[in-house]
Amino acid sequence: MAATGDIDLARFGRSGRNPFSKPHFVTSDYRIAQDHLEKSSEGLFQLSVPQNKQFRRYSSKARLLGESRVTLVNIDSEAGYRIEMNADPDLIYVQVLLQGSALYQQRSTRVEGRSAQLVLQEARAITRKDWGGPTQLMAFRLSRRALERLAAQTMGALGSRPLDFDTIQVIDLERVPTLWHH
Questions:
Q1: Cross-strand partners of 6
Q2: Is 129 exposed, middle or buried (0-12, 13-18, 19+ CB in 10 A)?
Q3: Model confidence over 111-168: pLDDT tens digits?
Q4: Is the distance from CB of 50 to CB of 79 less than 8 angstroms?
Q5: Alpha carbon distance 38, 157 (integer Å)
Q6: Among 133, 145, 146, 139, which Cα is nearest to 120's?
Q7: Spatial CA neighbour of 46 closest among 117, 126, 120
Q8: DSSP 3-state of 62
Q9: Is 119 exposed, middle or buried, given 0-12, 13-18 or 19+ CB atoms closer than 10 A?
Q10: Full DSSP string of 101-157
Q11: Phi, psi at residue 35, to the nearest 5°?
């Protein structure tokens, strides 16, 4: 049963049309999950847990949406876990938190993200995410350069400054229902 505030993806999908219906990768072995995450992200993410015995399961499903990779991730670790995300100046990382909560830290900025929130991160510095237990999230990896090209094409020109979304932003999905419905 979902906790209050959790988002049930099954409610929003149509039977047979869900692109995330089958997992690409599933394991209950912490070391295999750790290795898979590091290799599949090309070193961008590292997974660690306080106690291997309390790790239960990792699964992920990914698709390309244009030039952007969209991933649905489920991690179940009784004692929580940590994800370290390396810096990548071109990356804008967006997570829709479906279940669980995390404390995000990038340099001196610390914010908490919870279920039914969207977390937008600039990846200009190493980010640490400490998760409190079982989680499910949908993540979008966006290229800053691609977004700038799209903005320039759409608006006819782009200012001399690059896109800047600040370090980390947390947005309640209830405040942007149109985003969630898309």
A1: none
A2: buried
A3: 999 998 999 998 889 999 999 989 999 999 888 888 788 777 787 766 666 667 777 8
A4: yes
A5: 37
A6: 139
A7: 126
A8: strand
A9: buried
A10: EEEEEETTEEEEEETTEEEEEE-SS-EEEEE-S-EEEEEEEEEHHHHHHHHHHHHS-
A11: -65, -45
Q: What does the buried/exposed string (b/e) look like for 66-104 if buried means 16 or more CB atoms within 10 Å of the residue's CB? A: eeebbbbbbbbbeebbbbebeebeebbbbbbbbbbbbeb
Single pTM value for the model: 0.79
Q: Using one digit for the tens of pLDDT, what is the confidence trace for 6-34?
A: 444 444 444 445 555 555 899 999 999 99
Residue type, 168: I
Q: Decide: residue 106, CB within 10 A, 0-12 exposed, 13-18 middle, 19+ buried.
A: buried
Token couple for 51: 């106690």
At 66 the three-state DSSP class reads coil
Candidates 20, 49, 22, 23; CA nearest to 34 is 49
Q: How far apart are the first and last CA of the chain?
A: 25
The amino acid that residue 112 corresponds to is: E
Task: From 53, 50, 24, select the one nearest 37 (Cα to Cα).
Answer: 24
